[in-house]
Amino acid sequence: MEEFRFLELCVHNAYENMAVDEAITLAMKEGEAPPTLRLYRWRPSAVSIGTFQGMTDEVDLKYCRLNKIDYIRRITGGGAVYHDFDGEVTYSLIVPKGHRLAPPDILKSYRIICGGIIEALEHLKIKSKFRPINDVVTDGKKISGNAQTRRNLCVLQHGTTLLDLDVEVMFSILKVPKEKISDKMIQDVKKSVTSIREILDRHVEVDELGNALEAGFSKALKIDLVPGALMAREWADAQRLMKEKYSTTKWNLSR
Amino acid sequence: MGDSIFKVPGGKLLKIKLTPSEDRIRAIVIKGDFFLHPEETLVALEEFLAGKELDEIYLAADIQDFLDEAGAKLVGAGAADIAKAILMAK
User: Fold this and answer.
1) Is A43 near chain B, with CB under 8 Å?
2) What ipTM score was computed for the predicted complex, to two decimals?
């Protein structure tokens, strides 16, 4: 089986997480980094928005500051995601352009890579399927959202898999006029989004989901995940990107 | 100055901020949860649209031509959807 570097489930803040993703693409562009899968959590909890979204349109920054929730703009499109430290696991898969997992047809590549999440959920005894454009759903409800960018001669796909969901907190973070947060809206979200703990009706630990994702990606994508670490140049690039880009108002509030 | 929000059927959300000048676009910001590869194309598209006539059919064709020439791929919305959203913001 093809070997991938595997960066085991770890914890970073929002700026480090997004900077590490981009740093890996920079190293891969130079032929220095191998195809990589990483699993990570966000501490403090954070909200990430799609690269084309308006930060102040989407996020209640005052609420975030008061509740010590970071906010960050991704380099990928897509929508706003709340990365609750205890409620989700994020993955990033980075491969060179032309890799078999990332064909030119973007929808096809979402379908292939999301196969890892579907297999991970299967591992947890949850049936799910890919729903174009970029979601994985179970029983018609979204359980994973994914986003992709193609740059630096690489394809980067990252995504979240929900372990738990607090709709009330989500609505407090995302900028929905408070008077519009009706019981019906909360019920509507509960009908369209779900989580692993809700489905299995038990307290699934974060590590259990991490292990399932590791097994799921390996099996579905036919890759051998070899535990590794960031190279010094990747970590140096990540530190630079964190300072000069991802932690700056210029980047995060650019739209 | 006008705003619009357009949910593309079966696709993503487009949010437009339009500054018109008579029947033309003076300035425009296109936001939303769609995908565009490469992402840098969006700012170039916004600049390209400045000065264009606010005509949905012409705009759709111009946007499509621009994306084709840039070799860009829009996912979750189409050129016609952006044109429609722009006119909604008029």
Assistant:
1) no
2) 0.96
